[in-house]
C-alpha cells in the first residue's frame, strides 16, 4: 500500500500575526517607558481629592519634588537677588518664587563646615517660632469644625490659670493674654510632662497686654489635645505629614539623625563658622508646638501656600481671625499685612525668614544656620521681597 507523503502547508496568516504581535509589544514597551506609572486606577473620589488639593497652588508647587532640585538664577532679576545674597555673605538655603515660578533655589555656605557639607535645597533647618503658625492652624481647624470659638474663654479648659475667665482663644493666638511663664524646665521630661510643667507655671502680668511668650501656645497645645483626644504630635502628623505630604518636616530627634541636617554656627570676630553651637535637646524638646521641628525651604513654602489656598483652613475661618485689628501685628504665628504675611524665628543659631504674598505669586524664604545678630537677614529678606512686587507695610 502506498501512503501519500503529507506536506505541511504554510499558513499565510502567521507572518501577519507575528507582525501585529511585534507592534503590540513595541507599543506596550513605549507605554511603560513614557506613560505615567499609576500603581492603581484612581477612583472618582481619589481623583476629586487630588484635583481639589492642587487648587490655587503654583505650577511649581504642584510637584513637591521640584523643591529638591537646585534652581540657578537665569533671569536678570534672579541674578540680582543671587548677588545680594552673596554680597551679604548669606549662609543657608534660599528659595525665591516670582509670578508663581521658582526663579532661585540654592544653598549658600556650609551645612556642616567640619565635613565640608554644603547647604542645598534638601538641607534641614530648625524653624524656631514659625512652628507657632502650624500650631495656630491646627487650632483654627477646631474652630472651623465648630468644636471651639475664637471668643471662648480659657476657663473651659484651664480654670485654675489666673483670670482664665477673661482670656480668649483669640488672645492666646495673638499673645494678647498678658500671660507669661514664671519658670522653665531644667530637666528632660516627656512631652506631656513638659506641658504640665509649663501650664502650671503660667502667671498673669498685665491682662490684655501684648507679651511675646511661648506659654500662650503651650496652653493652645493643651487645648488641642483635649479637643482631639490625641497627642499634639499625632495631630501634627495627620495634617502636615499625611495630608499635605510634607516629608521634609522632621521632629527634633529625627532631625539630629538626618543626613540632611544642618549644624548651627556663630560668627566670631568677623569669621564665619567661628563657633559650632552644640545640639541642645532640652532647649528644643520643651518647645512643644512652638519651636521643635526642622523643615526645608520647600516644605515651608508648601505649608504657607496650602494655608493661603484654603487647603488647611477655609477662608471664612481665616478671615474671622485676621480682622483689621491684626494688621501689622503678630497673629497666629505670623505677622499679618494688607497683601502679604511675614514669619520669623530665632533659635540657637538658626533663623528662618519668610515673606509671602497673599495671592501666592511671590515668596522669599531664607533659612540660615548662622544667625547674624544684627538682624541683617530680616532686612535682606524684605529687600528681596520688595523687588518682586509692591507690598504695603
Automatic annotation (TrEMBL):
InterPro entries: AmpC-like, Beta-lactam-related, Beta-lactam/transpept-like
Highest taxon of the lineage: Bacteria
Residue span, Beta-lactamase-related domain: 78-380
Membrane spanning residue stretches: 12-34
Keywords: Membrane, Transmembrane, Transmembrane helix
Signal peptide positions on this chain: none
A Pfam family this chain is assigned to: Beta-lactamase
PANTHER family recorded: BETA-LACTAMASE-RELATED DOMAIN-CONTAINING PROTEIN, D-ALANYL-D-ALANINE-CARBOXYPEPTIDASE/ENDOPEPTIDASE AMPH
Protein name: Beta-lactamase-related domain-containing protein
